Automatic annotation (TrEMBL):
Protein name (Swiss-Prot/TrEMBL): Sterol O-acyltransferase 1
Record PANTHER family: O-ACYLTRANSFERASE (PTHR10408:SF8), STEROL O-ACYLTRANSFERASE (PTHR10408)
Organism for this UniProt entry: Portunus trituberculatus
Transmembrane stretches, start-end: 129-149, 155-174, 181-202
GO molecular function: O-acyltransferase activity
Amino acid sequence: MLKSPLRETVRMFMKTWAFVRSNLSRARSYKKDDDATQDEGQNNSTLCPNFSHYLYFLFAPTLVYRDEYPRSVVARITQHSLPQDWWNSTSYARFYRTWNCVVHDWLYEYVYRDIVSWQRQQGGGCSKLRCFPMMVVFFISSVVHEYILSFAFRFFYPVLLIMFGGFGVAFMFVNSKARQFNIFLWVTLIFGTGIIMCLYSMEWYARINCPPTFDGFLDYAVPRSLNCEFSN
């Protein structure tokens, strides 16, 4: 199966990005005198962590890097990595926060907060675009999901990209704490999953039974089910 190696590749990329991003400021402020300070046995917090920190982080049940993980923190991280009660969500915002807590924390820590910080530095009208960081987070998440599916299925069919990056973003602006919204959430999830399964299945069997319309990369990128004549 191609899906597991692809998911592991994405996980390793997220781990590496978290490690580099968390230590970038310390690495840029590193000076040669810090080596002498470290040799004298003084604790200098500006020094970059050694490889053992990175190696431990690779096996830690989190995607957010910290220099140290006390046992109490590890216990909370392990519990936090488990699925929360997303099925009781009364808004899509809460559903996205509790559906995959580990990935949500990474996106919030290394994408959302960095963009918000950049907006504040720019000032002016840029800092007022509050929805811009959220749009970037959804775009990155949609592209990564589509990347995994495209290589696993061996064709590009951006159904999930449109459903998640389009309708999923639109539903984020529906603010409601009413319990009735939970019914709406479940109905849309059921219909959305059905549409995704049907369209990907149609494209899968079209790739098996229908001749290609284009050659090379276009055949990979253009859905074959659009030009395939299905017979009864």
